[in-house]
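[recover] target loaded
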């Protein structure tokens, strides 16, 4: 019996392929599945609508709804107002001018150099 996945030869009556581990079809299962396929082809299920029936229903529904849609004006959806973001004017960061930031950075450098020489 050949594996349907990897085409490896297996012993008769094996459940799994020794090469890839795939489940091997049993003789009874294969016959039953073939019979079910033939039945499903010959007699479609009475509970499943065919694709053409679904398309027909969809076309009827959209045809009945399309005049109602075209007569109504489209309205923009209501959206919440966006929160206003702080504006950076003149290059200020956190409301402090760049000159103050440079002075603060220079002060930090001086303190770091002083502390490193104090050891």
């Amino acid at each position: 019996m050949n594996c349907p996945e990897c085409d490896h030869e297996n012993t008769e009556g094996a459940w799994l392929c020794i090469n890839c581990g795939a489940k091997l079809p049993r003789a009874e299962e294969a016959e039953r599945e073939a019979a079910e396929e033939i039945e499903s082809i010959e007699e479609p299920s009475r509970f499943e609508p065919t694709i053409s029936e679904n398309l027909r229903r969809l076309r009827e529904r959209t045809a009945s709804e399309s005049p109602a849609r075209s007569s109504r004006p489209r309205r923009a959806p209501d959206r919440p107002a966006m929160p206003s973001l702080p504006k950076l004017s003149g290059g200020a960061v956190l409301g402090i001018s760049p000159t103050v930031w440079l002075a603060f950075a220079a002060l930090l450098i001086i303190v770091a150099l002083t502390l490193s020489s104090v050891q």
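[recover] notes: The two ends are 84 Å apart (CA to CA).
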